[in-house]
Amino acid sequence: MASELAWYDLVCYGIVGVTSVGSLSVLWMHEGASKRELGPLDETLLLGGVSSSTKLWNSCWPGMHPFWLLLMRFLSFLTLAVFLTLDVREYDVSIFVYYTEWTFTLVMIYFALGTIISAHGCWQYINKPPLENGEMDLFLRRDLEESMPKNPIAYKDKEMKGSIRLQSQYIEEEFKQRVGFWGYVMQITYQTSAGAVILTDIVFWCVIVPFLSISHFKLNMLMGAMHSLNAIFLLLDTALNNLPFPWFRVAYFVLWSCGYIIFQWIIHACGFTWWPYPFLELDTPWAPIWYLCLAVVHIPCYGLYSLIVKAKYMILLRFFPRELFRI
């Protein structure tokens, strides 16, 4: 970095600052407003406007057992962990100066959370929890019949139905509370990863590989895998999962990238000498244009993934009756 701040440095700082504040404002208006309208229980389960814990671990495809989504997520996590380990062994921990490794790790965290939550969901499914398999009334009725005395005069049918309803609500709230915070984090990680994967892979394959010559850059099979497996596994998960994709969550994606840029500024202020991506350099009058383009490109990247999600549901509507699939 230059010893003195130039006007274009200040403009770049302003672009990142305004973008960060704007993203936080979007989250406050949409995410925060939605939470304030809900109760304490539903607030912890806000799934892009849908309060349903089963969407975290159920597939959108009719008749598909949640075990297959669990298996896919576990194998994806395992594969990504292996390749990230190989990447660190090849280049040491300094490889994390690249946005690719940040995104790759984020995708791996999503699959780790998804594996845990899917495992819990499969446990519920196997044990046939009354909430999800239509056996709530039968389960509670048997419990009441075993516990109450054999005196038909003491208990009327109306009272039993009222007790069943109360216990049903209690058990339903207990199941929902188990999802809570981690289900919310899982969604944000998924939606942030979606935009970041599109940005990372497009910039790598369409800009860096064909046009930029970097002394630190040498294309090999490991690097190619790091810039393709993240998208492949995430797209496969998207094809199977039932997670929503609200537009305003693009703000998390933008904040993720702003965090990476601020990280680059900090390490360069501390003496780091080279930029992993030439378009992040500040010591050039063209820097504001690059930074502005980077800010704008987040919208089409997130929008492209949103179109992929919509296309999936269009395919579902075409091949299955609406009442069969889980949307």
Automatic annotation (TrEMBL):
Mind telling me which residue stretches traverse the membrane in this protein?
6-28, 67-86, 106-126, 194-215, 252-277, 289-308
Q: Which GO terms describe its cellular component?
A: membrane
Q: Which UniProt keywords apply?
A: Membrane, Transmembrane, Transmembrane helix
Organism superkingdom: Eukaryota
Protein name (Swiss-Prot/TrEMBL)? Uncharacterized protein LOC106771121 isoform X2
Gene of this entry: LOC106771121
